Amino acid sequence: MDKLIEKTSPFITSKFSTRRIMLDVIIALIPCIIAGVLFFGWGTLILVAVCSATAFISELLFTLIKNNKWNWEAVKNSSATDLSCIVTGILLALNLPASIIWAYDKEAMAFVPGSISFANIWMPMIGAVFAIVLVKMAFGGIGRNFANPALTARIFMVIAFGSVMGTVGTSNIIGLDAATSATWLSAGRDAAAVSSNWFNFLIGNKGAAAFGETSVIAILVGFIYLVIRKVIDPRLPLIIIGGVAVFAYLFDALPSGGSFVDMMLVVAGHILTGGLMLGAVFMATDYSSSPNTFLGSVIFGLGIALLVVLIRVFGSYPEGVSFAIVIMNIVVPLIDKYIYPRAFGRQKAVRGAK
Question: Please, is 44 exposed, middle or buried when counting C-beta atoms within 10 Å of its C-beta (0-12, 13-18, 19+)?
């Protein structure tokens, strides 16, 4: 052998680069953004732009300050260019109420639906900085964050800016008849409301605390795209949604009584409203904060489903998806400690074999 080449792992590389995966996620989120514009007006686009730009600038400045390099080469090598911060910014915007960009009528003491005001624009900017700097970069950047940055920032904003984050927006197409009202989850979870509004629930013409969760159809389009592009494993979102269906039947529909049809309508309401679909497809599937094995994903998904239903049915907060996913994100290291992939080349031990 004339020449010995020494090289450290990884020895196998993939055609799926971080930038390509993030670009696919951004494409998958476009239907949700379009639905937000159609049902809540152009102000939602401003939210997406502000959160994305703030997230990009935050990550770029963090890497430049950390490396103490201030040249064009450092900018090109910054992790901000892999688009993951843009995904975080878009997801944060989709988790915000459309009313955060609406003007506030002091005499009526209420937001003016459909109007645009920049008075509160600093709130989503702080949320984006929180997500990138404190949740993502402070723990080492992409792949090392302990929880989904966008969801953690949403929880922070719900606690810090509760009066604004708690406003629910409802609107018709193009936001012409925008209004504020309660969601199905906060209005008693009535079976009759699902029966008479199931189509509105599907397309997005309903009350939504976060404008990105309004259209189930838009989320499903993004889900199908990500599955076709092999960006996400479809089993985890299906486990979460299926788990919510089972637990909603056991803890909400069954105790409330009524006919079998009414109980199924209550279960359908839990699935079609709130942030369940958005969270299950786009945030629970975050690579760095979800388990490494299928069995771990089953535990992770069912844990999210159980927490979602418990918070919705027994808690004082009508929605629990954000809290449930972040809590289970924290449990993931424990799951991976005891449930891990079999080492490559190692044969499964046969009981009784000598």
Answer: buried
d(CA 201, CA 204) in angstroms, rounded, equals 5
Question: Which residues are CB-neighbours of 93 under 8 A, at least 6 positions away?
Answer: 44, 47, 48, 50, 51, 52, 124, 212
Residue pLDDT, tens place only, 52-73: 999 999 999 999 999 998 899 9
Q: Which candidate, 37, 167, 32, 40, places its Cα nearest to that of 115?
A: 40
Largest Cα–Cα separation, the chain: 86
pTM for this prediction: 0.89
Q: Residue 104: CB partners within 8 Å, gap ≥ 6? A: 110, 111, 112, 117, 119
Predicted confidence at residue 176, as pLDDT, reads 47
Token match 């939504």: residue?
208
106-115, 172-181, 225-234: least confidently modelled range: 172-181
Cα–Cα distance for residue pair 272/295, rounded to 1 Å: 26
| CA gap 126, 166 in Å, rounded | 17
Distance from C-alpha of 282 to C-alpha of 149, rounded to nearest angstrom: 12
Count CA within 13 A, CB hemisphere, residue 113: 18
Whole-number pLDDT of residue 299: 97
Confidence of residue 278 (pLDDT cuts 50, 70, 90): very high
Contact (CB, 8 A) for 208 and 196: no
